[in-house]
Write a structure and sequence with these properties.
The complex is a heterodimer of chains A (about 110) and B (about 110). Chain A is an all-beta fold and about 110 residues long. Chain A is built from no helices and 11 strands. In chain A, strands 2, 4, 5, 6, 9, 10 and 11 form a 7-stranded mixed β-sheet that branches. In chain A, strands 1-3-8-7 form a 4-stranded antiparallel β-sheet, with no helix packed on it. In chain A, a hairpin with a 5-residue loop joins β7 and β8. Chain A starts with a strand and ends with a strand. Chain B is mainly beta and about 110 residues long. Helices cover about 0% and strands about 55% of the residues of chain B. Chain B is built from no helices and 11 strands. In chain B, the strands form 2 sheets. In chain B, strands 2, 4, 5, 9, 10 and 11 form a 6-stranded mixed β-sheet that branches. The radius of gyration of chain B is 13 Å and the shape is globular. The chains are: A mainly beta (about 110), B mainly beta (about 110). Chains A and B meet through β5, β9 and β10 of A and β4, β5 and β10 of B.
């Protein structure tokens, strides 16, 4: 069974640009969550999608957005990139809503210059 | 509301020594609790989980954790550390969403 796939693995962008990250969950999983990981702030929850609907949202500005498609694949978008957006972005998939273990992808390392 | 506190951002032990990583949680509902491990430039891998039932939970790579409701703790232990255990460890609590602790970096001295 394939794991969670995140693309691309590495990305370099310039301040002010926008970026789209992709996540393919484990087959059969309907919930996808996104996290931002930085040395200073640790792992911070961005948002969670279930059946194409955003169910939970973390405390991030509106520049951060996401969506989920009917096949459960998810994308997150960051517009008007800032230097502080440089981070490892992790996607996790779960079977369903609510409490339960999450399976993580390898992450996308975003560097903003 | 849920929260997780990991005591000690960095723990160093000798190879063969006991590993103890501390985690305390807060949850308004019965929690699901997890320990994850992260190697450099990798995603998080589940070590073990507590949902209901037996309070002593065994995981992969010889790790185990005990859920103590009275102490709101879920400490991670391993009797004998190995060099390959060097990594970052995250405790997490899940009710409506998963909340992670700040992580503990485990170093192993030869």
């Amino acid at each position: 069974k394939a794991g969670v796939t995140q693309t691309p693995r590495y990305l370099i962008k310039t301040r002010g640009q926008q970026v789209t990250l992709s996540c393919s969950p484990i087959s059969g999983h309907r919930s996808v969550s996104w996290y931002q990981q930085t040395p200073g702030q640790g792992l911070q929850f961005l948002f969670e999608y279930f059946s194409e609907t955003q169910r939970n949202k973390g405390n991030f500005p509106g520049r951060f957005s996401g969506r989920q498609f009917s096949n459960s694949r998810s994308e997150m978008n960051v517009s008007t990139l800032e230097l502080g957006d440089s981070a490892l972005y992790l996607c996790a998939s779960s079977l369903g809503q609510g409490p339960g273990e999450a399976f993580f992808g390898q992450g996308t390392r975003l560097t903003v210059v | 509301a849920q929260s997780v506190t990991q005591l000690g951002s960095h723990v160093s032990v000798s190879e063969g020594a006991l590993v103890l990583l501390r985690c305390n949680y807060s949850s308004s509902v019965p929690p699901y609790l997890f320990w994850y491990v992260q190697y450099p430039n990798q995603g998080l891998q589940l070590l073990l989980k507590y949902t209901t039932g037996a309070t002593l939970v065994k995981g992969i790579n010889g790790f185990e954790a005990e859920f103590k409701k009275s102490e709101t703790s879920f400490h991670l232990t391993k009797p004998s550390a190995h060099m390959s255990d060097a990594a970052e460890y995250f405790c997490a609590v899940s009710a409506s969403k998963i909340i992670f602790g700040s992580g503990t970096r485990l170093s192993i001295r030869p």
